[in-house]
Amino acid sequence: MPGRIPQSFVNSLIERVDIVEVVGSRVQLKKAGANHMGLCPFHDEKTPSFHVYPDGHYHCFGCGAHGTTIGFLMDLDALTFPEAVESLAAMLGVEVPREGGEARRVDPGIYEVLNAASKQFKAWLRHHDEAPSAVAYLKDRGLSGEVARDFGIGFAPPGWQGLKTALATFGEERLLAAGLLAKGDTGRTYDRFRQRIVFPICDARGRVIGFGGRIFGPETDGQPKYLNSPETDVFHKGQEVYGLFEARRARNRLDTVVVVEGYMDVVALAQYGIRNAVATLGTAIGEAHFARLYKVVDRIVCCFDGDDAGREAAWKAVNAAFPTLSAGRRLDFVFLPDGEDPDTLVRKQGADAFNALVAEAASVGRYFLERLQIGLDLGTVDDRATLGELALPLISQLPDGELRAVLLRELARLTRTDLAHLEQRVAGSSSRRASSATARSRTESKLATTLLKLLVRRPQTLAGLDDSERRQLLLAAEGTLQEVLRFLAEQPQADTTTLLGRFVGDPVHPQLASLAAEEVLPGAASENDCRDCARRYLNERNLQLLRDDYQQVGTDDAMRRHLDAKRQQTTGVDDRQNAPM
Length: 581
Fold this sequence. Notes:
Helix content: 40-55%
Shape: globular
Radius of gyration: 26 Å
Strand content: 5-15%
């Protein structure tokens, strides 16, 4: 596990790096005596009040922002402290030392490979014999050459060896490590991206870390519409956001981002001057995405289709966002008309119509309470009690602040309940949730470890579960087990070596390597073993979660009956005799 970065190294780094050079690459500076000044990147201003001093710090006399070179990168690029230190160290070509513990080493050459691939894809879009059909597709979607340039859009031609041949000097192993090649059952390697529009995905520093490829034209041959780079040392699909670097580059001060579904939505909105759209990479927006975006902006607007699937996605977003909604952060929702997505809507109605939808977006608090009231008659005592019991566990996930206070006041009004009673319930719920999580981790540890061992030793045994069971397992799992399941969902052909390679440098790697080295009894780790263990794990998780709900109900008979029915529907077991009283 990576150790601490020595403070002496940090101090030395600040002294050695030229802050004027670092800040000047992001802010237009002018000499002002012994110092430099320019327009502050942290707030909108017309008269320069941002001063950079050669001794290694900066200060804005307008908004009060100040700090060292490391602080500048952390605030401007939403980097963590270690990431900012790594960034500065890379500028000097030095390695970051660690105290006690091994630092995660990423081959710097991987960025060089990915950058070269991005250049090749862009060159093919301009000059390849097969490119006209891709160019015609982009033009038909209304994209200009300027937007294609700003987002680095490229083209992967048909054929299996094009990129492999073009970047042969890097070597096959490095191309595999960068996720540019895939390996077939026979061991032969081939281009991962073929006959697709290619979108480079950049990190906070603008370095290419992966790609997304979109199929175009009527012939898809059963291929997925979107294809992303696999997990690599620098690319983690569940944490990345497409278009964030471009959005920050386009605007001096970004205060709002609009989260849309896909790459084409992001670039189509940019074509119409809406430069603050981003997209997750084929996954539902999760807590990690919200945490990352809230480092950059104070307001997030999630844009979903107005159908049932869109509203279900919005509800999942509420659950993911609540723990991150500390003071000053806003979350709003836009639901598009049926049959429309941001791409089609902005092309039909223009930027003003889309911006009007964003301006009138529903707040998370409003949407939260409206969603929970669906199907309830608040004129009845039972349904008012149900609303309270549905809302309180979620409200307890909110950080203590104004949003939680407002929701509790509104819930008290809707349920005709004393506010002090609800506040006491939320405080108790938070305490019970923490103790329950501790107890649950103890009861699950043996099953989770057994299942993890089976998957590490024989990843292919996951095929013994049907699609529904695999989805349920991924949703129910936590921690390391969930990370392994997510990787195997994206790389179903992975073997033990590939699985362990994905986690090299990760804090969980020693645990996985240890499990892989343990002896397996003859006949163990079969598909039947995996299926049996997974089902027992799922049953335990479902029962434990429902017991948590049951415990929170207290003596409310109506809500207990509701949960009894839910328990039987979910698990097929009438567990009332085991419920805490």
